[in-house]
Amino acid sequence: MTRQNAVLAGLIGAGIQASRTPAMHEQEGDAQGLRYLYRLIDLDQLKLDSDALPELLLAAERMNFTGLNITFPCKQAIIPLLDELSPEARGIGAVNTVVLKDGKRVGHNTDCLGFAEGFRRGLPDVARDRVVQMGAGGAGAAVAHALLSEGVRHLSIFDVDAGRAESLAFNLNQHFGERRAVAGQDLPTALNAADGLVNTTPMGMAKLPGTPVPAALLRAQMWVAEIVYFPLETELLRNARALGCRTLDGGNMAVFQAVKAFGLFSGVAADAQRMLAHFQRMNG
């Protein structure tokens, strides 16, 4: 991919004012000598919902945006509006990065690689026989693919929409083999047998406080991973750490998905360690 002289990127999502993504991209752009602008397109502030995606994509194209990141609640709703999907995005069924180039909209998924990299670094040697995942939305689909790729043998997926959990489990089994994933039925029983727990729901965000799993169901022997990164210590992680669980916060996924998206937008490889250090300074 050729280097862009200037990059104009944005993030479409709901309730994203606290996002660290613009600062991560712009700071790395500065370090690389690029003119790099990154804008928030917050559906809540604009009083819009995902029905506005066609209009927002068209506006971005007309204003010569280089690309867009896509977050909750648009990672699946965006797909019918795109011209092409990367193999990862097609397999996962969710898009978090759209490159706008030569009149085409190409969807990518950097969440899967982002979570996998953070998991390898933060929980490298944990047991992976049975894992419970909360959430089966766009981020959940990416994380589930990452978990099974990283050696989780059996994944139980819970979602407020049981049909969505069943659909994701079906998709995963097509890719990874029969019975690797199931839609969970009984959360206490599943957690009692689990090596680890991953939250991929927005529950725990500053704008959606709370925990997806009652503290009473956590056990000291399990590891707990989170994808919410604002705040870095969610109620779920606070409860888990109080018990002595090994934990992984959402910061690594936030950084490593941004590293990959930066490369897609700019044509230049990002310095992952520099972006990680910048993120840690912002959250210090």
UniProtKB/TrEMBL annotation:
Catalysed reactions, semicolon-separated: shikimate + NADP(+) = 3-dehydroshikimate + NADPH + H(+)
InterPro entries: Shikimate_DH-bd_N (IPR013708), Shikimate_DH_fam (IPR022893)
Pathway: Metabolic intermediate biosynthesis; chorismate biosynthesis; chorismate from D-erythrose 4-phosphate and phosphoenolpyruvate: step 4/7
Leading EC class: oxidoreductase
Keywords for this protein: Amino-acid biosynthesis, Aromatic amino acid biosynthesis, NADP, Oxidoreductase
GO function term, MF aspect, one: shikimate 3-dehydrogenase (NADP+) activity
UniProt keyword annotation of Amino-acid biosynthesis present: yes
Active site: 75
Binding site for NADP(+): 135-139, 227, 250
EC number(s) given by UniProt: 1.1.1.25
Subunit description: Homodimer.
Function: Involved in the biosynthesis of the chorismate, which leads to the biosynthesis of aromatic amino acids. Catalyzes the reversible NADPH linked reduction of 3-dehydroshikimate (DHSA) to yield shikimate (SA).
UniProt xrefs under NCBIfam families: PRK00258.3-3 (NF001319), PRK12549.1 (NF009201)
This protein's name: Shikimate dehydrogenase (NADP(+))
